[in-house]
Structure formats: C-alpha cells, structure tokens
Design goal:
Order of helices and strands: EEEHHEEEHHEEEEEEEHHEEEHEEE
Largest sheet: 12 strands, mixed
CATH topology of the largest domain: Fumarylacetoacetate hydrolase, domain 2
Number of strands: 19
Shape: globular
Structural class: alpha+beta
Number of domains: 2
Strand content: 35-45%
CATH superfamily of the largest domain: Fumarylacetoacetase-like, C-terminal domain
C-alpha cells in the first residue's frame, strides 16, 4: 500500500493512494485513521494486522481523484536520521570536498556506520514545498535517498523518498561542521507517500533517479540502484536502535550515490525531482535563505 496525507474537503486526511484514487480513511474513522500513528496504534505492531485494517477501511472510504498538488508530508510526528558514506560515489565525493583527507575512506570501510540526526520534523518539508539552501553556503546540493520508516523497535513500517540537502563547502571546511551543513531550516524533504513493505520487492534493488530543472531545462540528472549500497538496511537499523530510544516513527535516510559534479550548486528557483521505483516522485523547489 501507498500511505499518504492529503488535502480533502474536510481538511488534511490520511489514506491510501491506489489506482489513481486517494482513499480517505479519515472519513471512516476520524480518530483511528487521523494519521498513520492512529492506524498503527489501532492495529498494533504486526504489519499484516495493519494491512488488514487499512484494506477494511478502504472498502468504506470516500474516494478522491489523485492530484499531486493535494499531497502533504506523509508524517507529522517523526525524527529523521541519516547514514553517510554508504555508497562508493559518496565516499569519493566527500574525500574530494574535505580538507581532512582519509576520514571518509575510513568511514566507508569501518565496521560502524556514520549515523547522525538530520531533523526532528521541525525543518522538514513535504511534496511540493520548498527546500532551502543556506545563506552562507556557495556549494549546496540535494541528495536523493531511499528512506526507511522504522517503529520504536526498529521494525520496518515502510519506505519513502528523502532529500538530504547538504552544504558541501561547509562540511568540507571541517567534518565537525557537519550539523551546520546538514541541519537548518528547509534542509530536508520526504514523501510523497510511505510504501509499505508489501509494495517493495527488495529495498536494496530499487532504481533511484534525480533530475534538477533550471529555467525549464535539465541542469543535472543521474540514476543509481540501491544494490550499490555497501551496508544493508538491517545493519543500519541495528546500529540506529543500539543503546538508543526511537520514536514511534523514526526515519533513516540511507545515503546517496547521485552526486552532481563539483562545479554544480543549487540555484534559487531550481526544481528537484527524485523518483524511486515502487514509491513515486518527490518534487520540491529550492530557495536560497536570506
């Protein structure tokens, strides 16, 4: 199933996107289906129970013709983490940008992955909303990432698309500047839906594509398959949970391998389109903070 939040006649609703229709589950049960949190509490932690609950709700739900503009950020209450240097291309790019040579070679081959908090939901944007470039950065890029939705026990609830906007010049100046390069207003986006595990045949065999449009023309495009990821999702989830307290929904961006060339930076007004097989397309406009 593809779970989503969307604009309805009665406000923002929770439901399922299927066959070109938005099935408004909130119209069936405004409390139990107020959002994914409500449905998860109603069904319990078993994915099969959640699927059955949603399928039953869809039989009674109002249907709205799908329009991309109706979609909202799929989760309101969440915490977002990110994994770094999980692809060889990312290792090479960060070695190029940094003044601390050798550090990313080490991270790529180390037993322990790089994990960091990206957001608490406060700075994150949804489909169609603006992502941002820091006012004090001259070299910033979007990073398209398969994003895993875990529950508090690190069980996979589903998958979505993440855009981990990054200031490469700030991080390159000093690795300790990573939080400033990664965490600021509008520095991430997720959406458009959460695809449940039954929708994804193999999360580590998915095609990812990114296109950046500038003045109506393609300024950059690239593709990758998640099979190139060095670390497994299970491994990343185990490290994320280790000695840690997870929220009901904790998102983990699993890293990127699509990196624009070193002379490329996001411009004010660029449109970033990220598409992941089995999930959909996340589109955001970029704006430079002032």
């Amino acid at each position: 199933m593809k779970l989503c939040r969307f604009e309805s006649a009665n406000g923002v609703a929770f439901g399922v996107l299927k066959d070109g229709w938005l099935h408004d589950l909130t119209s069936v049960d405004p409390v139990g289906f107020r959002d994914l949190d409500g449905a998860y509490s109603k069904a319990g932690a078993e994915s099969s129970a959640l699927t059955s609950l949603l399928e039953d709700g869809m039989k009674k739900a109002k249907k709205i013709p799908y329009e991309e503009r109706l979609l909202k950020i799929p989760l309101q209450t969440m915490e977002i983490w990110a994994a770094g240097v999980t692809y060889l291309r990312s290792r090479n790019a960060r070695e190029t940008e940094t003044k601390s040579k050798g550090i990313y070679d080490y991270i790529y081959s180390a037993v322990r992955p790089e994990l960091f908090v990206k957001d608490t939901g406060l700075r994150c944007r949804g489909p169609g909303e603006e992502v941002c470039v820091r006012s004090d950065s001259n070299w910033s890029v979007p990073e398209p990432e398969l994003t895993v939705v875990f529950d508090e026990e690190a069980r996979v609830v589903g998958y979505t698309i993440g855009n981990d906007v990054s200031s490469r010049d700030i991080e390159g100046e000093n690795p300790l500047y990573l939080p400033q390069a990664k965490v600021y207003r509008g520095s991430s986006a997720i959406g458009p839906v959460i695809a449940t595990p039954d929708e994804i045949r193999d999360p580590q065999a998915l095609d990812i594509a990114m296109k950046i449009l500038r003045d109506g023309k393609v300024a950059f495009e690239g593709t990758v398959n998640t099979s190139q990821m060095k670390r497994s999702i299970q491994e990343l989830g185990e490290y994320l949970k280790r000695d840690n307290t997870l929220r009901r929904f904790t998102l983990l961006m699993t890293g990127t391998s699509i990196v624009p060339p070193d002379d490329f930076t996001l411009h004010d007004g660029d449109t970033v389109e990220i598409e992941i097989e089995g999930i959909g397309l996340l589109r955001n406009r970029a704006t430079k903070l002032r």
